[in-house]
């Protein structure tokens, strides 16, 4: 799993949990996962169970969205097309 993704995910989960005033134990109990699992998510551990992760995110009111990766060149071309009045 990409380190940037796991670090981002860890920060988002930790931040949201803190804003909601929850301890790791509170979140674990509410999501039906172990406190250890919550700790692993917040530490950015790359090997986590997706169903448990989704339960944690759902408990925090967060969603995981997937998008396709686009190369920098394709993004540049798309931006140039819009600037020239092409499709957006």
UniProtKB/TrEMBL annotation:
- Signal peptide per UniProt: none
GO MF = DNA binding
Q: CDD domains per the record?
A: HTH_XRE
Instruction: List, alphabetically, the Pfam families matched.
Output: HTH_3
SMART domains cross-referenced by the UniProt entry = HTH_XRE
Record-given protein name:
XRE family transcriptional regulator
Q: Which SUPFAM superfamilies match?
A: lambda repressor-like DNA-binding domains
Domain (HTH cro/C1-type): residue spans on this chain: 13-67
């Amino acid at each position: 799993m990409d380190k940037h993704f796991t670090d981002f995910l860890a920060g988002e989960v930790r931040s949201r949990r803190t804003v909601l005033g929850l301890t790791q134990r509170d979140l674990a109990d509410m999501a039906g996962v172990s406190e250890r699992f919550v700790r692993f998510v917040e530490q950015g551990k790359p090997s986590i169970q997706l169903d448990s992760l989704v339960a944690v995110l759902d408990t925090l009111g967060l969603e995981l969205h997937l998008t396709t990766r686009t190369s920098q060149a394709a993004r540049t071309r798309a931006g140039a097309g819009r600037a020239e009045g092409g499709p957006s």
